[in-house]
Amino acid sequence: MKDFMVAVVQSFTNFGPPDGVQVSVVLVAHTVRNYFYLNNFTQETDIVHHMKIFPELKGSATAIGEGLKFVREKSFLPKFGGERLCANKFLVLLTDGKHNLGALPKPQAEALKYDGVTIFVIGVGPKVLMSELLAIASKPEYVFNVTDFDQLATINDRIVDDACNVARYALVPVFYPLTQKKAPWPPGLLGLDQLANQHHLPWLAHNEHRHQHDEQSQQHDDRIR
């Protein structure tokens, strides 16, 4: 498992702010344990080193929903490294069992997707529940099922390629002044002209519609004059 995680990280070349890859690791068993946040390490060597040395989290339970909830409520917070609004967010869930404790996985996964997180799910071995993995993943093609941990090496490139394709074609709406009487900027966004995910900005779609309506009204007035 650690070898697979390291291989995914080493598939990238640029790390840390302002525009490089950031990595966090969260482990789930009967409880959830965060090993490091997105902004704890900004160099590949440090990320790989700490991936290799974290201890096992033993336990008979598999609290997948609690893990997803932790990632949603903690891992992507600005204070833990999630402040880059134009960065694409990905979660790779790796499990060899099915959920059996705590919050249900599907609602937590839906909330993450609504927040703009693309979720890949990897099931290892015969004990996983495919219907559960499909409900968590962003797309059916983002679900991978391998027979054992040795087979993880066969899907590394596919996951990295899919993530890069998502990032390449991601929609980045542009914020612009809307009328002569400027609408107030949302808190914390002063000076920004690009925003990452329209789900975070319901006011953006409304204001774009308003801007288009103002332009149409102006054109109508010009024709009358």
UniProtKB/TrEMBL annotation:
<feature type="domain" description="VWFA">
    <location>
        <begin position="1"/>
        <end position="159"/>
    </location>
</feature>
<dbReference type="InterPro" id="IPR002035">
    <property type="entry name" value="VWF_A"/>
</dbReference>
<dbReference type="Pfam" id="PF00092">
    <property type="entry name" value="VWA"/>
</dbReference>
<protein>
    <recommendedName>
        <fullName>VWFA domain-containing protein</fullName>
    </recommendedName>
</protein>
<dbReference type="InterPro" id="IPR036465">
    <property type="entry name" value="vWFA_dom_sf"/>
</dbReference>
<dbReference type="InterPro" id="IPR050525">
    <property type="entry name" value="ECM_Assembly_Org"/>
</dbReference>
